[in-house]
From TrEMBL:
Protein name, entry field: G-protein coupled receptors family 1 profile domain-containing protein
GO molecular-function term, one example from the UniProt record: G protein-coupled peptide receptor activity
One term under GO cellular component: plasma membrane
Domain of life: Eukaryota
PROSITE patterns named in the record: G_PROTEIN_RECEP_F1_2 (PS50262)
Amino acid sequence: MEDMIVQQSNHTKEVQVEKRHDYIVSDEVLAQLSFINFVILTGSISSLGVVFNIINIIVFIQLGFKDPLNISLLGLAIADTGSLLPMIWISICNNPLLAQQYSHLNFQGIQHLTAGWPHVCFSRISSLLTAFITLERHLCVALPLKIKSIITPRRRINIVVSIFIISTVGVIPTYFGAGLGPTLNWATNMTTIGLVYYTNGQNIENAAIMFSTFTQLLAFVVVTISTLGLVQTLQQKSKWRQTTSSSSNNTSISNRDQKTVKLVVIISVIFIASYLPISMSLLGMLSYGEFTMVGMYRNLLLAFATVFFCLESFNASVNIFVYLIMSSKYRNKFMSIFNRGKLLKQ
């Protein structure tokens, strides 16, 4: 969502926006929402989320990769950490006290380049990894005898690494089209340091925005369809096993499979709930020109964006609790590391 918050350098557009959007959501209300959602909620959630995901990274490394799923979950923890760190900087940039003290700096433009796009990059990596994890788990349940030959550990590593590379390459061009420099604030007639677009810079950024939007919507669709298919296939397999097998060993395997599937389903459901409003807004921006940064509903879009940041931060922070509740291996390793640290202190 934040990749759509583009700083406009054209004076005519700024004046037009100023005249058209005031009666939708006032600047005062937007400032209050930004402070509550960006500075307080998003900053707090993101700070805790970074700690939680660092713990996830340590635990998954300690667990090893005998279970190939740990490779994907490790990648997800790294991506979530990368998406949350810029959110902390965004919450700092939106603090009105900072803007008052450093009035010569345009923090909206600064955060756009130094935090907005890095967050977009890792957020899209996280979305694509969630899509891959959900799809892979669906195939595990639907094609249990073929999945090991379809997604080998080496292929899994290649897919995870490719997601990181492709998403990063999609963002890098924006830094060739924009930078930080002196800009004239038309409202105050003061020169500040902020976002400056180079020649064709906005066109380059618009292309990056379209790529980011496409990957986000693609990931959302894949996660939604795979989750629905996963639940349906699991129910069918469970009924079939109950009627055809009474072996305790088979029951044990089935229970382990179900726990893993439930863990993935919970992660996917949290993702769907967090990104549904964002995906709907992206579709709205693509289909309705007034619901953009230069349209009638500019302030309304920005007000929604403050909520979307909170949802993204929440989604990137809560997986640790899912792992602790649903995975006995994760929980045991977590407790082992925690107790070890406690003993060292003693």
